[in-house]
Write a structure and sequence with these properties.
mainly beta, OB fold (Dihydrolipoamide Acetyltransferase, E2P), 13-stranded mixed β-sheet, two-stranded antiparallel sheet, 2 helices, 5% helix
Length: 266
């Protein structure tokens, strides 16, 4: 699974580009609103097919909502990009949405002694980093870095779940959001940034025995093998109080019957 539901702003006018000898896409850079004290996230958006024709009419500065797009990560350039999905222009009254859902396998064991993988801060925060491999085709996959940050006293502590239950090869589905940290490098004075997925929800795949998934055993005792029919065996037609199969009922009360019009009002 790989889907992204995001609100963004166009940072430039969309432009048509060739992705191979016969196919084109409409591409532009977009910016996601910052999350909390984080920096805005900039990434490339690619739209294909008929949706691309409509996207070409959008202009720089437009606010959009992107539904069920796919998130990709280029390991060489270390940049994220969005591909496909349904795109709609919205206004600033539209709620800000930043949702990423990915399914794949964890690529590493987490070393508690490695501060880059897991650490606790003096003020009681736990931070854990993991990487998810998400299939993109035959023998191909994207690697997505994600992290969880929680207070040690939180009842639902995703950072603790990651360090205790994720291992190399463990299947997982994560729900998160794209966030960007930005800072000034003390040595060079350059402004640097890194984009990651902040974990909001985690679902682990069932454990297996030698590669075979254990069957789910019922914890309910059935008194009889005979299953009683629902609603006493009545069908939907017999239990329909409005008898909608023969037409819709007249509106009750002050509305009365629908007026007869001589001409169509539209």
């Amino acid at each position: 699974m790989n889907k992204a539901n995001l609100c963004a702003q166009l940072l430039e006018d969309p432009r048509e580009v060739f992705i191979n000898e016969t196919s084109t896409a409409v591409r532009c850079m977009v910016g996601l609103p910052p999350v909390g004290n984080k920096a805005p996230t900039h990434l490339e958006l690619n739209i294909y097919g008929k949706a691309a024709e409509r996207f070409m009419r959008f202009q720089k500065g437009a606010l959009i909502f992107l539904h069920r797009s796919k998130l990709r990560f280029d390991l060489e350039s270390r940049t994220y990009s969005l591909h496909g999905g349904s795109i709609t222009q919205v206004n600033d009254q539209f709620p800000i949405i930043n949702e990423i859902t990915l399914s794949g396998r964890c690529v590493k064991d987490i070393d508690r002694d490695d501060a880059k993988a897991f650490k606790t801060t003096p003020d009681g925060l736990m931070i854990c980093n993991q990487t998810l491999s998400v299939n993109t085709g035959r023998n191909q996959a994207d690697l997505f870095n994600f992290y969880a940050i929680n207070n040690a006293a939180d009842k639902l502590n995703h950072a603790e779940l990651l360090v205790n239950f994720t291992r190399k090869g463990v299947g997982a589905t994560i729900d998160g959001r794209l966030v960007t940290d930005s800072w000034t490098d003390k040595a060079s004075g350059e402004r640097k940034s890194v984009t990651k997925i902040q974990l909001m929800n985690l679902t682990l795949a069932p454990k297996s025995n030698n590669g075979a998934v254990s069957p789910v055993k019922s914890s309910t005792t059935i008194a009889s093998d005979k299953v009683a029919p629902l609603w006493g065996g009545k069908t939907a037609e017999e239990s329909d109080p409005w008898n909608v199969t023969s037409g819709l009922p007249d509106l009750p009360g002050q509305y009365g019957a629908a007026p007869e019009l001589e001409e169509v009002p539209f």
